[in-house]
# Entry
Amino acid sequence: MLFATIGGAALAKGVVEKFSQPATASETVLNPTPEHIDYYPPFEKWNDWREPDGNYWKLKGGSQRGGVKLINYMLVPTVCNNCEAACGLTAWVDKDAMVVRKFMGNPFHSGSRGRNCAKGYATQSQMYDPDRIPFPLKRAPGSKRGEGKWVRTTWDEALETIGKKIREALEKGSELERKMVMYHVGRPNESGGFTARVVWTWGGDHHNSHTNICSAGGRLGSISWTGDDRTSPDFANSRLIFLSSSHAADAGHYFQQHAGYIADARAKGAKLVVMDPRLSNSAGMADLWIPVWPGTEGAIFLALSNRLLQEDRYNREFVERWFNWKPL
# Structure
C-alpha cells in the first residue's frame, strides 16, 4: 500500500484492487436513506459504497427514480492536516474516475469520532483548487519586485538559489544580515521539531511560525502550570466546565474534539460557565455567561483564588501533591 500527502490530507492508494462499471438506480439496489445526520456506511462496505451523484440527483429528481447516476465509492481513512488537532477523515474516492469527490468524518477515529469542522471538509478544494501552486516560481527575468510577474522553475534551481543566499548571509553578512535569515513553518506539516534543530545549527534561532502571533501567550501560561503547551482537560467527565475567553464549546483550540466532549458532559448534567467579553457561540449556550471587561480576567481569577483560600474551600492535599504548595 502506498501513502501520499495531497493538499491537506494524507491519502492511501491501492486500497481497492477491483473496479466496477458505473451503475444507475435502475440497475442496482440503492443504499438506504439514513435516519440520522451522523450516519456512516457500515465498515464492511467501505470498499464498495454506492450513492447517487448529487448534481445529477438535483437536476433529475429523487434518488428512487430510474436513471439516477450512482457513484461507486471507496472510503479511504486519512487524517486532516489543516491544524494540529489532526482529526480523522474519510476520503470518498470515485473508483471509476479515481478522484476524491468529498471528505467526511471518520467515526472510528478516537479523537474526532466522526466530527469535523469546516477546514476538514474544505480539503477537497485544496486538492483541486485551480489556483493552487504545485511547483516553485521565480521572478520573471527583467521584471521588478511588486510587478507580480513569475515564471516556473525547477526544485533544484529553487533550492540552490535559496541555499546560496542563506550561505552568503550567514558567512559574509553583517550581524543584522545574519539575523534576517528566517525559516517560517506552518503547523502541523513540520517534522516534530527536527527541522528547527537543523536551522539552529546555523548559529541562531532563525525559526518562526504563526504561533508567535496566534497562541504563544496561551501556551506560555499552560506550560507554566502544567508542563504542557497543549492541554486537553477531561471535559467529558467534568461536572462544571469553566471557559475563560475560550470558544471550546463550539470549536476548540487546540483540539476541535473538545466541543464534542463538552457536549457529552452537558448531556450528563454538567454546567457550563463562560467568561468572555463577547457573546460568543460558547457563551450563548452556557448556563452562565460572565461578560467581563477586556483584560480584567486576571483580576477576577485572583479574587476567586483569594476567596477559596480565605474560606478554606479547596482541597489541601490535592494542591500540595500536584502544585507543591503549602498554604501558610
Observations:
- The radius of gyration is 26 Å.
- DSSP finds eleven helices and 14 strands in the chain.
